[in-house]
Amino acid sequence: MGIQSFLRAEEVAVELGVSKAYAYKLIRTLNGDLRKRGFITINGRISRQYFNEKLYGGNAEGGKGEKDVGIQGR
């Protein structure tokens, strides 16, 4: 089947080396941001694209804009 579009909390926890509880908290925060922008979200899952943009920089439009500095030192 190909790469999934959404990450589950378990995958976020492994990716970041954090607890599953913290991964859920992070997903809630990121999904809240998406809802404010008018997107539909799924509890306990986060868009893989948005997760990467918020944590590793860049934006969906591909242009230069405000850079989000997620976790540093990775």
Could you characterize the architecture of this molecule?
This protein is mainly α. The protein has a domain at 23-58. Helices cover 46% and strands 8% of the residues. It has helices spanning 9-16, 20-36, 48-56, and strands at 6-8, 45-47. The protein has a two-stranded antiparallel sheet. Helix 1 (9-16) crosses helix 2. The longest helix is centred in the middle third of the chain and has 17 residues, at 20-36. The radius of gyration is 12 Å and the shape is globular. Mean pLDDT is 82; it is low at 61-74.
Task: List the defining traits of the structure above.
mainly alpha, 74 residues, globular
Residue share in helix: 40-55%
Strand content: 5-15%
Mean of pLDDT: 82
The protein's oligomeric status is single chain
Uncertain stretches: 61-74
Shape: globular
Helix-strand topology string? EHHEH
Termini separation (Å)? 29 Å
The total count of helices amounts to 3
Helical/strand content category:
mainly alpha
Number of strands: 2
As a whole number of angstroms, the C-alpha radius of gyration is: 12 Å
- How do the strands line up in the largest sheet? 1-2
Largest sheet: 2 strands, antiparallel
Can you give me a brief rundown of this structure?
The chain has 74 residues and is mainly alpha-helical. The protein is built from 3 helices and 2 strands, in the order E-H-H-E-H.
Task: Note the topology.
Layout: E1 6-8, H1 9-16, H2 20-36, E2 45-47, H3 48-56
